[in-house]
From TrEMBL, chain A:
Annotated ranges, domain SUF system FeS cluster assembly SufBD core: 167-392
Organism of this sequence: Stagnihabitans tardus
Lineage: Bacteria, Pseudomonadati, Pseudomonadota, Alphaproteobacteria, Rhodobacterales
InterPro entries: Fe-S_cluster_assembly_SufBD, SUF_FeS_clus_asmbl_SufBD_core, SUF_FeS_clus_asmbl_SufBD_sf
Protein name per its UniProtKB record: Fe-S cluster assembly protein SufD
Superkingdom, taxonomy of origin: Bacteria
From TrEMBL, chain B:
InterPro entries according to UniProt: AAA+_ATPase (IPR003593), ABC_transporter-like_ATP-bd (IPR003439), ABC_transporter-like_CS (IPR017871), FeS-cluster_ATPase_SufC (IPR010230), P-loop_NTPase (IPR027417)
PANTHER family in the record: ABC TRANSPORTER I FAMILY MEMBER 6, CHLOROPLASTIC (PTHR43204)
GO MF terms, alphabetically ordered: ATP binding; ATP hydrolysis activity
Chain's gene name: sufC
Assigned keywords, A-Z: ATP-binding, Nucleotide-binding
Family, similarity comment: Belongs to the ABC transporter superfamily. Ycf16 family.
Top-level taxon: Bacteria
Domain AAA+ ATPase, chain residue ranges per copy: 28-233
Protein name, as recorded: Fe-S cluster assembly ATPase SufC
Family annotation (SMART domains): AAA (SM00382)
Length: 422, 251
């Protein structure tokens, strides 16, 4: 089946601006076929109804000014971690640690370890059904670099991917694969805006009894654009936890596609997004319960002001036979003025009869009574508002298990609030 | 200490006059009680003094040690030494009680040009005050008033008062929802704070609270005005005869 003319033209234009990559040619060829079959997203596509992908699919990345962090320490600075740095999407060996770590094998996509043959693009391909995710397939086909992390035991310390944005016109595409052996454990940190435009895919295979923690902060460049996908498959009794902090960014689309393949596993995805002004932030989550007695949690909070827009599309699909499923989804926005908006589309699709699934979505303003109460005790208005914003976000941050990391995220939120008091 | 002259207040949202000329003068170290039927304006008076939004002062003034209260933001009034113990303490999910108390105390200190209290000294202070109010450490760890019983919320108000050490304390129906034991505990907490430099305005429906917190002066409020002022015996009179006799000719 061919694409309609406008889609075919858009795809041809985009492909014309990309360079073929040498590594893993077969997986890339298959991915290119997937893109060819679906075409690139367009705002008329139902899945992109609330977020216009035009600037994400355009052949050239729109310019994005680099953010000035002033004298602020970088995120996760005090945490002992293995650092791997990319500048505008290009691996920076001088800013990275040696890629050896007990319990972990790390290689780069540019020179992949043999196991990557059977992993690269596999979960992304599975994630194309029932909804096509062409920007992820495009990434598999053309990603210039990334890391391939095989976790054989308990990682001695977190692996930290640092994305530095230096060029106002950079257009980066990175693809990472993480494979956790049975019982293995890894914490993966990601932070930074990466580029003017960033397309990133993270595939995570969590074997039986393995535990994966993911905490990322997407950088505060106001004009940066990002489309990211996480594809995860969970074995029996495994754990997957992912938290994302997004403060600023003109356009962000974060998709998480999680599938339970083994019984009694747990997956928690959470996000805290703060937007002021030109900010469009979209969390799109698809969780498939394909096994018995698994637990999924989606906790997404957005703080919006001065016309910022928040989007949440969250789906829980419970397949036939996935009994004892426990699915929960909450998406909430705190609108700090009347110009901002929050669009939510929660969905449940259930084909098993012994399940517990719930979802909720709310939009609200700062609680004036709470604000008055705090002020009546002497807390200045700005500080009281910040306390209430942090309180609003608390449930999502609570999904971070490591207290030192959570504290870092909280500090970052406070500093954002200080910069955006008006 | 607190001086209110001819205070007229209406609701901002509707054209409804609530206070219609309140006069009240509380000297340093004095305890005054205001009693009155529902809707007489007692709570409105406490809200207006503490700076809650939604009320418009149309006439009159209120000063604390000669400083105009009505021109100040709520946090400035707190730093100036005013404290309102809420009738319905507000639950704030996500804000820890300790963080709240410490933020409030340090903000007030800062506003007064004093040094902030250290974490260690603060912890010691809270533990000591909490102990006398029988507030356990578990309660302090929870978010502000979340999951607290009615009695715990009121005790938490008094704890805040004990830590912030205001000079003018307004207690808005602090006895509502309390059983006899809890009322005694709360009253003891208040009495422990009584001092020469600290004044109290106790708003209540019932005389029983005034058995525990003995007032120097009792005012009866009705239809937005103070209609009668007397000694503690006035409270007993209300308890025995109700408000009917006093209200004759008012409204």
């Amino acid at each position: 089946m061919g694409l309609i003319a406008p889609k075919a033209e858009a795809l041809a234009a985009r492909l014309g601006a990309l360079t073929a990559q040498a590594s893993l040619p077969e997986a890339r060829a298959r991915a290119l076929d997937r893109v060819g079959a679906s075409g690139l997203p367009h705002r008329r596509d139902e899945y992109w109804r609330y977020t216009d992908p035009a600037s994400l699919v355009a052949p050239q990345a729109p310019k994005a000014a680099v953010f000035d962090p002033r004298d602020e320490a970088p995120l996760f600075d005090a945490i002992d971690r293995l650092k791997i740095t990319f500048v505008d999407g290009v691996f920076a060996p001088d800013l990275s640690d040696d890629l050896t770590l007990a319990g972990v094998e790390i290689s780069r996509l540019a020179a992949p370890a043999p196991w990557a043959e059977g992993a690269y693009g596999v979960l992304e391909a599975l994630g194309q059904s029932p909804v096509a995710r062409p920007l992820a397939a495009l990434n598999t086909a053309f990603a210039t670099d990334g890391v391939l992390i095989r976790v054989t035991g308990r990682a001695a310390k977190p692996v930290s991917l640092i994305y530095i944005h230096k060029s106002e016109t950079s257009d980066a595409m990175l693809h990472h694969c993480v494979s956790l052996d049975p019982g293995a454990e890894l914490t993966l940190l990601e932070n930074g805006p990466a580029a003017a435009r960033f397309n990133k895919v993270l595939e995570v295979e969590v074997a039986d009894g393995a535990r994966f923690h993911h905490i990322r902060a997407q950088g505060r460049d106001h004009e940066r654009r990002a489309v990211t996908h996480i594809f995860a498959r969970l074995g029996a009794k495994s754990l997957f936890k992912s938290f994302t902090l997004s403060a600023n960014g003109i356009l962000t689309r974060n998709e998480a596609v999680i599938t339970f393949a083994g019984d009694e596993a747990r997956a928690h995805v959470a996000g805290a997004a703060m937007g002021d002004g030109a900010f469009h932030h979209d969390d799109t989550v698809f969780i498939t319960h394909g096994a018995v007695a698994c637990e999924s949690r989606q906790v997404f909070k957005k703080v919006l002001k001065h016309g910022a827009v928040g989007v949440f599309q969250g789906k829980i699909l419970v397949k036939p036979g996935a009994q004892k499923t426990d699915g929960y989804q909450i998406s909430q926005s705190l609108l700090l003025d009347e110009d901002s908006q929050f669009l939510a589309k929660p969905e449940l699709e259930i084909y098993a009869d012994d399940v517990k699934c719930s979802h909720g979505s709310t939009s609200g303003a700062i609680d004036e009574t709470a604000l008055y109460y705090l002020r009546s005790r002497g807390v200045p208005k700005r500080r009281a508002q910040s306390l209430l914003v942090l309180a609003f976000l608390a449930d999502s941050i609570a999904e971070i298990e490591d207290e030192a990391i959570a504290e870092d995220i909280r500090a970052r939120l406070e500093s954002w609030l200080e910069r955006h008091e008006d | 200490m607190l001086e209110i002259k001819n205070l007229h207040v209406k609701l901002e949202a509707e054209d409804k006059q609530i206070l219609k000329g309140v006069d009240l003068k509380i000297g340093a170290g004095e305890v005054h009680a205001i009693m009155g039927p529902n809707g007489s304006g007692k709570s409105t008076l406490s809200y207006v003094l503490s700076g809650r939004e939604g009320y418009e002062v149309t006439e009159g003034e209120a000063t604390l040690d000669g400083v105009d209260l009505l021109e100040m933001e709520p946090e400035e009034r707190a730093a100036a030494g005013l404290f309102l113990a809420f009738q319905y303490p507000v639950e704030i999910p996500g804000v820890g009680n300790m963080v709240f108390l410490r933020t409030a105390l340090n903000a007030q200190r800062k506003a007064r040009g004093e040094e902030e209290i250290s974490a260690g000294d603060f912890l010691k202070l809270v533990r000591e005050k909490a102990k006398t109010l029988k507030i356990d450490a578990e309660m302090l760890k929870r978010p502000v008033n979340v999951g607290f019983s009615g009695g715990e919320k009121k005790r938490n108000e008094i704890l805040q008062m004990a830590i912030l050490e205001p000079k003018m304390c307004i207690l808005d129906e602090t006895d509502s929802g309390l059983d006899v034991d809890a009322m005694k505990l709360v009253s003891e907490g208040v009495n422990a704070l009584r001092s020469e430099g600290r004044s109290f305005l106790v708003i209540t429906h019932y005389q029983r609270l005034l058995d525990h917190i003995k007032p120097d002066v009792v005012h009866i409020m009705a239809a937005g005005r103070i209609i009668k002022t007397g000694g503690p015996e006035l409270a007993l009179e209300v308890e025995n005869n109700g408000y009917a006799d006093l209200l004759e000719g008012v409204v």
